[in-house]
Each structure stands twice: as structure tokens, then as C-alpha cells.
């Protein structure tokens, strides 16, 4: 059984006979996309973990792309009816959109087991364990024989519009150069299956010999990494023409460590 943002009002906190529960089937996976409290946030979806695997994309409360202004949402690419529904219940309806995208992307939407979304964002629950990460959506049941008895909360990020899946990487850059500068460092990944756009690794004071690490969610699974592109910029004209390079760049793939 797959729960697509099961309802919160009249169901949350009720006995298991009344609402969806892991005892309802051999394997129950749940996608939570609108789990903010109904009062005052108008969350339509149930908050607690109730299945064998409970996925909380983007933290499970506010979905990216749902904060667009009402006009752009109602005149949606998918038509006025779809756009109007999204305006009224965008977070809630994301659950079925993620699910339908997951059918097309068997290796997408990997959920990382983590105590909280904040810890996930900080990279505490990266990479996937030896046995891998379950995939949110259609292929979650591939993991059903590895499920433990307690509730399992999983976190991941998605894009703000179709296609929704993202793939997570840890990137560490050690700088080289002769003087510190203010600016930012971007990295793009190239691989056997495609390449990403530039993703920011750090911003602020850039010091040679320092290592800067970021967890990036990229829009394509690049396959085996073959090349990394490093760019830095200090945003303003510096008469001393500082030079900065990357001594080393380390990329760790969340999916297969």
C-alpha cells in the first residue's frame, strides 16, 4: 500500500483502525508532502510516521515550487484546472506527482534514513548505507525485505517542477593560491550519463589551503564521474588580479558511496 500524503484532519491521532497504518498490508510506504499543522498552516497531510517507510521530501511540509505567485500557478503549464488545484492544495498534490515521476526514474528519489530534515541538510545521514537507500514512490517495495520493525523516516530533496528527482553528492574543494579573496566557488559534474549545471560549494572568504564542503542535489544522475569543472569569482574587479585554483576536488556519490 502506498499512502500519498494521507489526510491529517479527522485522522491524525486516531486509532489505527481509522487511519492508514503499517498493519494494513505486508508493506506500507508513505509520502508526506503537506504535514504542517492544519491549524494555523492548513496542512492537509498526516505528520507522524505511520508506515514501514515514511518519506518526507523537502522536509515534508513545504514543497519547492508551491510558493509561486497565484497568477503563475493558476495559468499553469498543465492547464488552468491543474493550476487552480495546485494553487489551493499544491503541497498536498505534490505526492501523486512525485509518485508518477518515480515510475519513470527507478534510480531517482532516494530517501536517506535520518532523525530530522535539519540533520539531513547538514549531511549527517550521507551517504546511503551498504544495503543502499530505498526509493520513494513506485519502487519503494524493492526494499520491503530490509525493513525493520520500528518506524523509518527518510528525507530527500526534489526539484520545484517536473521532472522532480534529484541526485545527492558530497563535494569537497581544497583551494590553492597566494592570497585570500571574497567570492564564491562553483562546481559542475560531468559523467558517463550526462552533466550538471554549476552548483555553489561556498560563498564568502576564500582562503588557499582551506577545504570547503557542500552537499549538492543535482538534476541528473551523471553515472560515473569523469570530469569536474571548477569556477570561482570574486564579483568585483580586483587590481591585484588574485589567482585561485583547486588543489583537490573530492566527489562522493550518495547512491553507491
From TrEMBL:
Alphabetically ordered keywords of this record: Cell projection, Cytoplasmic vesicle, Disulfide bond, Hydrolase, Lipid degradation, Lipid metabolism, Secreted
Reaction(s) the record says it catalyses: 1,2-didecanoylglycerol + H2O = decanoylglycerol + decanoate + H(+); 1,2-didodecanoyl-3-O-[alpha-D-galactosyl-(1->6)-beta-D-galactosyl]-sn-glycerol + H2O = dodecanoyl-3-O-[alpha-D-galactosyl-(1->6)-beta-D-galactosyl]-sn-glycerol + dodecanoate + H(+); 1-beta-D-galactosyl-2,3-didodecanoyl-sn-glycerol + H2O = 1-beta-D-galactosyl-dodecanoyl-sn-glycerol + dodecanoate + H(+); 1,2-dioctanoyl-3-O-[alpha-D-galactosyl-(1->6)-beta-D-galactosyl]-sn-glycerol + H2O = octanoyl-3-O-[alpha-D-galactosyl-(1->6)-beta-D-galactosyl]-sn-glycerol + octanoate + H(+)
Gene3D superfamilies tied to this protein: alpha/beta hydrolase, PLAT/LH2 domain
Bilayer topology annotation: Peripheral membrane protein
Source domain of life: Eukaryota
A single BP term in Gene Ontology: lipid catabolic process
SUPFAM superfamilies for the chain: alpha/beta-Hydrolases, Lipase/lipooxygenase domain (PLAT/LH2 domain)
Pathway annotation: Glycolipid metabolism; Glycerolipid metabolism; triacylglycerol degradation
Residues annotated as domain PLAT: 167-257
Molecular function terms, GO-annotated: galactolipase activity; lipoprotein lipase activity
Top-level EC class: hydrolase
Subcellular location as annotated: Cell projection, Neuron projection; Secreted; Zymogen granule membrane
UniProt cross-references to InterPro entries, sorted A to Z: AB_hydrolase_fold, Lipase, PLAT/LH2_dom, PLAT/LH2_dom_sf, TAG_lipase
PROSITE patterns recorded: PLAT
Primary residence: other
Family indicated by similarity: Belongs to the AB hydrolase superfamily. Lipase family.
Name of the protein this chain belongs to: Pancreatic lipase-related protein 2
Gene name per UniProt: Pnlip
